[in-house]
Amino acid sequence: MKKLMNEPNAVVDEMIEGYAAAYARHVKVLPQNKRAVVCAGGARPGKVGVVIGGGSGHEPAFMGLIGRGFADGAPVGNVFASPPPAPILEVTRAVNGGAGVIYMYGNYAGDCMNFDMAAELAAMEHIRVETVLVTDDVASAPPSQAHRRRGIAGGFLVFKAAGAAAERGYGLEDVVRVARKTNDAIRTMGVALTPCAVPQTGKPSFVLGEDEMEIGLGIHGEPGVERGKLRTADEVADALLERILADMPVESGDRVAVLINGLGSTPQMELFIVYRRVAQRLAELGAHIHRSFVGEYVTSLEMGGCSVSVLKLDDELAELVDDPADTPMYAQHREGKEG
Amino acid sequence: MKKLMNEPNAVVDEMIEGYAAAYARHVKVLPQNKRAVVCAGGARPGKVGVVIGGGSGHEPAFMGLIGRGFADGAPVGNVFASPPPAPILEVTRAVNGGAGVIYMYGNYAGDCMNFDMAAELAAMEHIRVETVLVTDDVASAPPSQAHRRRGIAGGFLVFKAAGAAAERGYGLEDVVRVARKTNDAIRTMGVALTPCAVPQTGKPSFVLGEDEMEIGLGIHGEPGVERGKLRTADEVADALLERILADMPVESGDRVAVLINGLGSTPQMELFIVYRRVAQRLAELGAHIHRSFVGEYVTSLEMGGCSVSVLKLDDELAELVDDPADTPMYAQHREGKEG
C-alpha cells in the first residue's frame, strides 16, 4: 500500500517532529526523550496530571488530545506497539503537579506491562500514579470477562470525562472514579471493510473479500466476531447497536453520548449515514442523545470502517462530556460563550 | 469500492439528516429545502451573511464549517456537483441580516452558474450579494490565467478569514476585500496516490499504478500536471512546495499560514511527515510560520494523497486566521482564554 513517508523506521519520530512543530502553541516534546509529548505549559501545581498513550497509528489518539480540559501528556510508541517505560516515566515527571497522575490506556498486554513499570519507577520518586484501563470493545470478550476486553474508540470519551474532571480540580481519587465510571458505562462495536498496512511491511493487516466486512475486528487487526457480506449502512448500524444493547441495555429516559468513529479511510459522509440510523434507533427506545461525536477519534492508519460507541450519562458525566477542551486535534467550546 | 451506505442516490440526504441530528446545537436544515443548511441561531441583524458551498464529498467542507466565526450557511449539492439555485437562495434568505451576503466557493463552471442565478434571484428580493471565487490550485492554470484556476483546499482559509471578518462586524465591502486578499495570497498544490469512487458508480475516479502518484490532480479527479513514481514524503513535499514558490515567492521575513490537507484516506501520520518537511523548507527561506493546520479540511471522499497550501499573511490576515471559531467539524479557541 502507498504511503507518504521517508524511511519506514522513521515515521513515528518524523510524525512527532511535524506535530510538535505544527502545534507548538499546545505541545512540546521533552528534550530528554523524543517520544515524550506534553502540554506546552508544563505541569500545573495542584492539578492531577492526565497521561494517555499507546502505540502510534491511532491518530489523533493519543498525542493529538493534549491540551486544556483533556490530557497533559502522551508517551508515544511505535506503530501499533506500546511505548517503553522511559518516555512514560518522563511524561509522568513532566505533568506531575503534586496532586498525582492518572494513566489511561487501552487494555493491551504490552501497554499494561510498560505503563505498570513506569508507575513503579514513578512511585520510587514519590509520584502517586493510578491506572484506569479502557475496556470498551464488546467484541473482544463475553460479559463475564468484561474486564479482559480491549480498549478502542470509547477511550476518547473516558479520557474526555477524566480530563475534564482533572481540569475542574478534582483530586486523584475522584478523577480515577470518573474514569472508571465512564469506562463502565461505555460500549463500542466496530466494523472493518478494508485493511491498513504498517509502514515497515506495507502489507495489508488482514484480507477481506471485495464484498465482505468483519464485525468486531480490532484496531490492530485482531480477529472479530462475524465475517459476512457487506450490508447496507442501516443494517450495519443495527448490527453494531444490537450487540452494544445486548451488553448494556438502554431504556426510555436514559441519557447517552454517541460516538461514531472513523477508522481512517472512511469518508465523513458514511459516518453521518451510520449516525443517522443509530440516532433513529436510540430515539425509538426513548433514549435522549445528549451529545454526539462523529469523525476520526481513534484510527487504525488507513483502515476502512467505523465503530459505534454508546455512553450512558448521569448528571456528572453529562457535564464533564460538555466541558470545554482545547487540543490540537479536538476542541470544544463552552456552551453559550463567544465563539 | 466498499461503502457504508443505503441507496446510492440517498447518500447526500441521509448524510445531511445525520449531520443535522448530531450537531443540532450548531446547525439546522431549513424546512423548505432539505439541501439548505444554516446556523442554528439564524440570521444575525447587522452581520454580513457568509455562504459557502458546493458539491458533497468534500466533507468537512462545506456544511461542517457552519458556526460562529466561520460560515452562516451552506447549500449542499450532490456528490461532486453544484447545488442548484433553490437551496442557495433559501440559505441566502435565511442568513441575511440586512448587511448583505457573501458567496464563496471554488471556481467551477457549475457552481458559478448556479450561485450567479441565486444571486440574481436574491437581488430581486433586495438582498445584496457579492461573490468571491476561490482559485488557489496552482496546477490548474498558468500564472497568466490565474483567475481561471480551480478552488481546492485553500478555500478553507479564505472562508476562515472572511468568516472572522464578518464575525468582527466588518461591512460587506470589507468582508469581500478580505476574501479577495486571502485568495490572492494563497497557493495550493496537491498530490494524489489513490482514487475515490462516487457512490452511484462505485468505480474509481482515475487509475494510478501501484507505485505511481500524480501531482496537481484535482479534487474531482481532474487531470494533474505530472504523473510519476511515488517518491519519498520529503521529495513529494519539496515538489509541491517548489511549484507553489515558483508561483508565489516567499522571502525571508514573510509570515505565512500553512495548511496540509488530507484528501480522505491518508493517515494523519503521513500529513505530519509532509508538514515537517514543508516547515523545514520554509524555515530555510527565513519565513515565519504563524499558524498551521494539519488534517482533513477539503476532502474527496476516500481519495489518497494530500495538498499543501501556503498563505502569505499581513497583520490583518494573521489576526483573522487566529480568531476563534466554533463549528461542528472545526473549532479554534481564542488565545489565552480558558479552554
Distinctive features:
homodimer, 339 residues, alpha/beta, Rossmann fold, Hypothetical Protein Tm841, Chain: A,domain 3, 2 domains, six-stranded mixed beta sheet, four-stranded mixed beta sheet
Number of domains of chain A: 2
Based on the structure given, which CATH architecture of the largest domain in chain A is correct? 3-Layer(aba) Sandwich
Low-confidence stretches of chain A: none
So, the CATH homologous superfamily of the largest domain in chain A?
Answer: Dihydroxyacetone kinase, domain 1
Note the quaternary state here: homodimer
CATH topology title of the largest domain in chain A: Rossmann fold
Protein name (chains A, B): PTS-dependent dihydroxyacetone kinase, dihydroxyacetone-binding subunit DhaK
Domain DhaK (chains A, B): 7-330
Keywords (chains A, B): Kinase, Transferase
GO molecular function (chains A, B): kinase activity
Task: Give an overview of the whole structure.
The structure is a homodimer of 339-residue chains. In chain A, a hairpin with a 4-residue loop joins strand 14 and strand 15. By secondary structure, chain A is α/β, with parallel strands linked by helices. Chain A starts with 10 loop residues before the first helix and ends in a 7-residue tail after the last strand. The first copy, chain A, contains eight helices and 15 strands. Helix content of chain A is 31%, strand content 24%. A six-stranded mixed sheet of chain A has the order 10-9-8-13-11-12. In chain A, strands 1-2-5-4 form a four-stranded mixed sheet, sandwiched between helices. Chain A has two domains: 176 residues, Rossmann fold (3-Layer(aba) Sandwich), CATH 3.40.50.10440; 147 residues, Hypothetical Protein Tm841, Chain: A,domain 3. The mean pLDDT of chain A is 97. The first copy, chain A, is globular. Chains A, B: InterPro entries: DhaK_dom, Dihydroxyacetone_Kinase. Chains A, B: It is an enzyme of class 2 (transferase).
